[in-house]
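Technical annex B. To support the medicinal chemistry partners, we prepared a structural model of the target in complex with zinc ion, based solely on the information shown next.
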Amino acid sequence: MAGRADPVWEHGEKIGSGWKCKYCREPKAGGGATRLKEHLAHRGNDVKDCPSVPKEVKAFFARELDKIKERKRERERQRHRSTAAARTQYVDLEMRTMILNYKLPSINQGRSMSSEKELVHDTRVVVALDRAKRDRSLGC
Ligand SMILES: [Zn+2]
């Protein structure tokens, strides 16, 4: 979390589990760097807006808070992506298992090619099936 290096501590003093704002001298009993940023940027739900913050400091921490929000959103997106990737891999594995067991249903029936990925899957299955048939006719 926020350590000593956070630039917000140039604008306030850490006191116990809270801080004291350098501009309005308002102490807050409990709250970390983010609370102080919200106080300076006038963005807090749970902290008062700073009445004495210089305009450029207010703008700076408003941008900081936006960046934090953006990073959080990016993390969310990445999590969704890796979940989707895991699912694709799982489907791939399932297809391979079906091929191995020669129990592949007619996968194209009643299904529209909704995505390129599906097309890739299907092509791969067809190729693998062909190979499986050939192997079988050769008596392997
Ligand atoms: Zn203040």
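Notes passed to the chemistry partners:
Helices lie at 33-41, 55-100, 116-137.
The chain is about 55% helix and 5% strand.
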